[in-house]
Design brief:
Layout lengths: L1 H23 L3 E6 L20 E10 L2 E3 L3 H14 L5 E2 L13 E12 L2 H13 L10 E14 L5 E14 L6 H25 L44
Parallel strand pairs: 2-4, 2-5
Antiparallel strand pairs: 1-7, 2-3, 5-6, 6-7
Amino acid sequence: MAIACHVNGRMGWIMVNLLAGGLFGCSHWIDVTPPPSDGTSPLRLVTKDERVPLIVEGLHVIQNGAPQSPSANLERRLLTSIQETRLFSTVVPLGSDSSSLGEKIVTARLTIDELIDPRPGASTWKGFLVGASMFLLAPIIALDYGYSAQAVLEVERWDGEIRRYHAKSSGIAHYHLFGATPLLFDELIGQVTEACLQSLMHQLIQDSAQYLASNSSAAPATRTIMVGIRPLPTAPAPHVAIPTTTKLPD
């Protein structure tokens, strides 16, 4: 009788842990720190006739110090964010033909410097604790995955004036043992990237008057380059024999 009660009690404890693992072992949540805001309203009134086209001229991604190929999702997010401002008459994607847009155009280049921190030391230690407890601590111990991004948007007007806008955001994905999925990490990266883009668009709208067709610098910048041909190497002067006279003794 005592043995049966002991077995039943142990089986009940196992069932409770299995239920808890099913409920919490796959759970996850994300904390994102947005860029600081100055609290001003991003709304501006812009006449449609004053709007000019914008061309996305460059998209660069650096991940943990190494250059990466930008994803189609990142370009889509950038184009959507710019279009939603309604500041420009049209937004031309990267690599598209822009020969028929006229003289007054704005170009944009975006650079994102990413830092991924899987926190291997803490994850290894927590994984050891979970394994040592026969997965009984899996619903309790949460693992972390960190991601941060610094974004720089460089916008150039038709007269050569360049302005740069900066944004920084970070986030941490908290998950239990069985909650680590590629979808979770993509969601973290998406939320941080979106926070950076929203901050950049906020700054861009504050400078909306700079990108109207009627606006021009008091002294338009002249963009010049040095042109010419490579000079030929100078040949050494030929050796010329100079005659001399020698007076013979008498």
